[in-house]
Specification:
Mean pLDDT: 91
CATH architecture: 3-Layer(aba) Sandwich
Number of strands: 5
Number of helices: 4
Number of domains: 1
Order of helices and strands: EHEHEHEEH
Strand content: 15-25%
Helix content: 25-40%
Structural class: alpha/beta
Largest sheet: 5 strands, parallel
CATH superfamily: Response regulator
Length: about 130
């Protein structure tokens, strides 16, 4: 497939997911669409390091990470930097603190087409703001 045919060909996506096979599925899905993957990483410390050292266009992250850690501090950091965030989680919207209620949520197990559509919407909104 040529780069022009890959909708995510110029995008670097950080994947924050502590379940190996889910992280792999997300990374494979996005790579097939041309995205460059940052990570996957399984905790906030590693994700914060990636964000501080590399350019990231978008972040897909689980809420509950390894050891019971929550990803909300990373959401705050990314939001301040203008990086769109999409939750890919087993949590329903009602279980998420209200301050994060407007962020897109894809409930696991996720549908590939819904994931790609949500990414396209978030990247489109980011481009309109720039």
């Amino acid at each position: 497939m040529m780069a022009a045919e890959q909708p995510l060909g110029d995008q670097r996506v950080l994947v924050v997911e502590d379940e190996y096979f889910i992280a792999l599925e997300i990374a494979d899905t996005l790579t097939a669409e041309g995205a460059e993957i940052a990570g996957p990483v399984e905790n906030v410390a590693k994700a914060t390091k990636v964000v501080s050292e590399e350019h990231v266009d978008l972040c897909l992250l689980d809420i509950a990470l390894i050891g019971g850690e929550r990803s909300y501090p990373l959401v705050d950091l990314l939001s301040e930097a203008g990086v769109p965030v999409i939750f890919v989680t087993g949590y329903e919207r009602e279980a998420i603190p209200s301050r994060y209620g407007k962020l897109p949520i894809i409930v696991k197990p996720f549908d590939r087409d819904i994931l790609l559509k949500t990414i396209a919407e978030q990247l489109g909104a980011k481009r309109r703001k720039e």
